[in-house]
């Protein structure tokens, strides 16, 4: 399946090292916009910097991979202390291969983390790695982004994990903000 999701989370910070260990995941390919930060926001969303440090302390390898331009990705990556791949051309495989080489991990030990069905999810499935879907961080959106979300909606996972063993149904939520 081209839009298969291994697990779906309300926020990236709901992903725990213990969950990753159970899934056999030792490395994450991370999207920036609407996953680690609001769209084009230069700062990580609330709790993301601490979450990244927690992942690092548990030996999880991390690489940022974004379709965004080099300067945007470079500045954000430097701020959070991670290697990066910009202009990655997701969903095509080339960026994923580069991320795999940077992490030095086999495909079965990696997962992609992101919020978009037609870039993050499709790319992870084409590259044949696990996909950890996160609800997009809310906020002001362009008409194009609103349109993309509308056509992605039927493909989204039906249940979203929101921490503490609790789930929410997709039909009850379209976007999550970190202020919820």
Order of helices and strands: EHEHEHEHEHEHEE
- The total count of helices amounts to 6
Mean residue pLDDT: 89
Q: What is the molecular shape?
A: globular
Strand content: 15-25%
Q: Provide the helix percentage.
A: 25-40%
**Major β-sheet profile:** 6 strands, parallel
How do the strands of the widest beta sheet line up side by side? 1-6-5-2-3-4
Q: Spans of 5+ residues with little confidence (pLDDT < 50)?
A: 175-180
DSSP E strands, number = 8
Cα gyration radius (Å): 15 Å
Separation of termini?
32 Å
Write the SSE topology:
Layout: E1 7-9, H1 17-23, E2 27-30, H2 48-57, E3 61-65, H3 70-80, E4 83-85, H4 93-103, E5 110-114, H5 117-127, E6 130-134, H6 143-152, E7 159-161, E8 167-169
Describe it for me?
By secondary structure, the chain is α/β, with parallel strands linked by helices. It has 6 helices and 8 strands; from the N terminus they run βαβαβαβαβαβαββ. Mean pLDDT is 89; it is low at 175-180.
